[in-house]
Write a structure and sequence with these properties.
By secondary structure, this protein is of the alpha+beta class. The chain has helices at 6-25, 45-61, 91-95, 160-167, 169-178, 188-195, 209-212, 215-221, 248-255, and strands at 35-36, 42-43, 66-69, 73-76, 81-89, 102-109, 112-120, 125-130, 134-137, 140-141, 154-157, 181-183, 201-204, 225-227, 240-243. Helix content is 34%, strand content 26%.
Length: 258
């Protein structure tokens, strides 16, 4: 069973992210209402339609590849290549008509997160990477910042209250006080900002595998680090922190989880 080259997988992943993301725009700012899933998270017809478009494209090209999607579960074949999809990362943001939501495509090859794409449909902004091939922002090479002093850093987090609930007010305050500024630019957009050098740290206290699979290869190929809060290099750790690499250990120490 042959495995496509990473360049081929990246090309297809880019097409898949773009097609899924463009499908979401048919519903964006339309007054669409969300349903509530069994786990309490929101879902819309746009999430389901976009993921189906993405799955169809993958299976038409690679019918033996595995697929895991947030909305339609596990499917596909038994090849050692697994596509991990999140059609709308930030459904609450999407439903409110805010453009900071994204479409995520991650590809594991023999268990290693190897390809990642973030597409921001409403902004028409894309970051894509494959292991050993670098990271590109709208087709141009991109890199994390070179900032070595957390005192000048920009920290982004989807929900700082969730960070506080996890580590307590004292540690959260110490982290916020240590950096130059913090913003809550939400969901995958914060990680895109780190990969392109515009932010220095992004973190979230609650993350699923489809939230993380695309992010690890993007951040690492851009020169940064992506881990769980324990410091483990994982896309399935339940939380995540991405940095430019230089600030990573200091941020982990401030969080105090490892």
């Amino acid at each position: 069973m042959s495995i496509p080259s990473l360049a081929t997988l990246l090309e297809v992943a880019t097409e898949v992210a773009w097609a899924g993301g463009r499908r979401t725009l048919a519903w964006f700012q339309s007054g669409l209402r969300a349903d509530t899933k069994a786990d309490g998270s929101p879902v819309t017809v746009a999430d389901r339609e976009a993921e189906q478009v993405m799955r169809d494209l993958i299976l038409a090209r690679f019918p033996d590849h595995q697929i895991v999607g947030e909305e339609h579960g596990t499917g596909g074949g038994t090849a050692p290549v697994r596509w991990i999809l999140d059609p709308i990362d930030g459904t609450r943001t999407f439903v409110r008509g805010v453009p900071l939501y994204g479409t995520l495509v991650g590809v594991e090859v023999e268990g290693e997160p190897s390809v990642g794409v973030i597409y921001m449909p409403a902004l028409d902004e894309m970051v894509a990477a494959a292991r050993g091939l670098g990271c590109r922002w709208n087709g141009r090479p991109c890199h994390v910042s070179d900032r070595a002093d957390a005192g000048g850093a920009l920290l982004v987090a989807t929900d700082l209250d969730a960070v506080r609930r996890r580590v307590g007010n004292a540690r959260a305050d110490a982290l916020v006080d240590r950096v130059d500024m913090q913003r809550t630019w939400a969901d995958c957009y914060g990680y895109l900002l780190v990969a392109t050098g515009r932010a220095d740290v992004a973190m979230d206290a609650e993350m699923a595998i489809w939230d993380c699979a695309a992010l690890m290869p993007i951040i690492e190929e851009a020169g940064g680090r992506f881990t769980a809060w324990t410091g483990a290099r994982s896309i399935d750790g339940g939380d995540a922190v991405a940095t430019n690499g230089r600030l990573h250990d200091e941020v982990l120490d401030l969080l105090g989880v490892r």
